[in-house]
Amino acid sequence: TFCVQRSMAKAMALDDTNELSGWDSAVISDVEARAQGPMVQTSSCVGDVFFVAKTALEHAVAVQQPRAVEAIAQCVLEAFGEFVRVMGQQAVEKWADVASVQRRILVALNNLDLANVYLQKMVDEVRIRLNTEWARLPETDKTKGQNAIDSLSAISSKLLQAQQHSIDQLSTSLLKPCMRSILQHSYRDIKYVLSDEEFNDVQSDNLFQQRFNLRIRKLGHQLRPRLLPSTYTLVVDAMCACLVYDWERAIRQSKFNMLGGMMFEKDVRFVQLCLEQEAGGVLRAKFAKLVQMARVVAEPAETSVAGVDKDVRALLANRVDVQPN
After folding, report:
1. Are 173 and 105 in contact (CB under 8 A)?
2. How many CB atoms lie within 10 A of CB 99?
3. CB 130 within 8 A of CB 64
4. CB neighbour class for 199 (10 Å; exposed up to 12, middle 13-18, buried from 19)
5. DSSP string, 107-126
6. What does DSSP assign to residue 286?
7. CA–CA separation, 135 vs 188, rounded Å?
8. Under a CB-based contact definition with an 8 Å cutoff, are residues 99 and 25 in contact?
């Protein structure tokens, strides 16, 4: 077990995050992605630590002694606890420049995502090997060995916790400022109290939607090459959370009439579609509150407000064409 711990510690110490190619420039929300070579998205320690862990487990299985498998499985669990700690530390470490900080956070996210895939594959393959090689052993021995291998699945929850912590760090350092900037830029000179003529003009030339689409594509073009596909989906989900929080606050301070409410509803649907295209999946739950708010401000002026909750009544007060009761 000492050799396993030492080998996994060495793999983490020799991690090559700082030497990965293609990470020279920082992500900036309002610029086009710069032309550069292919980006290496994960660092060396993920493959190395899993190679050590799987090799040790396979050797323990070959011994055909439950205590050997239990000892190595416990050793691997402890070593991966350190791996998770190191990956989490990558996300909060202070470095000299913005590009380096972003590289360490994003690579850590990729590493944690890939580690979960490798973990499940390792557990499945070692379990199959144990069942094959221990076929003639007593059932009690096989059960002990299987339980030891299955205990490694507990690492998954720690990896997911560390990944969420890294997402939170990324949101604070990058996503919140970017999404706030995109929203503010897109809303420049936009209003939701519209005449019939203004409504028709916006229908044919919606500046908010054009600006938002341009900026979100620029951000996506910079982030996508830096992240594994599944990790990028998680990041887009976090982008939505950042955007929706600021947008809801802004809408509560905006004035509407029915036509403006109808246009706002169209804008919400458009933004949801843009981000769903980026994520490659449905984000209905993230936009549920905004969609509800949009429906409220788009209601005809004669709609009764009786029975609606305080939150909705406060929003209806922003309608310039609805008289308060």
Report:
1. yes
2. 14
3. no
4. middle
5. HHHHHHHHHHHHHHHHHHHH
6. H
7. 70
8. yes
Give the residue among 151, 150, 131, 147 at the shortest CA–CA distance from 64: 131
Instruction: Return the closest-CA partner of residue 245 out of 172, 316, 190, 193.
Output: 172
CB count within 10 Å of CB 17 equals: 19
Question: DSSP code of 172?
Answer: I
**CB neighbours of residue 271 within 10 Å:** 25
Q: Give per-residue pLDDT as tens, 62-112.
A: 999 999 999 999 999 999 998 998 887 765 555 557 888 888 899 999 999
Instruction: Kindly give, in sequence order, each residue whose CB lies less than 8 Å from that of residue 25, ignoring residues fewer than 6 positions away.
Output: 34, 36, 99
What's the CA gap between 218 and 38, in Å, rounded? 18
Instruction: Please name every residue paired with 319 in a beta bridge, in sequence order, or none if there are none.
Output: 256
pLDDT per position as a tens digit, 22-56: 888 888 755 555 545 567 899 999 999 999 999 99
What are the two backbone dihedrals, phi and then psi, of residue 319, each rounded to the nearest 5 degrees?
Answer: -80, 115
User: pLDDT tens, 110-162?
Assistant: 999 999 999 999 999 999 999 999 999 999 999 999 999 999 999 999 999 99
- Residues near 158 by Cβ (< 8 Å), separated by ≥ 6? 80, 81, 84
| Angle value at C-alpha 60, between 57 and 66, nearest 5 degrees | 115
Which CA distances in Å does 64 have to 1, 67, 105, 136? 16, 9, 41, 10
Cα–Cα distances (Å) from 21 to 25, 29, 41, in that order, read 11, 21, 9
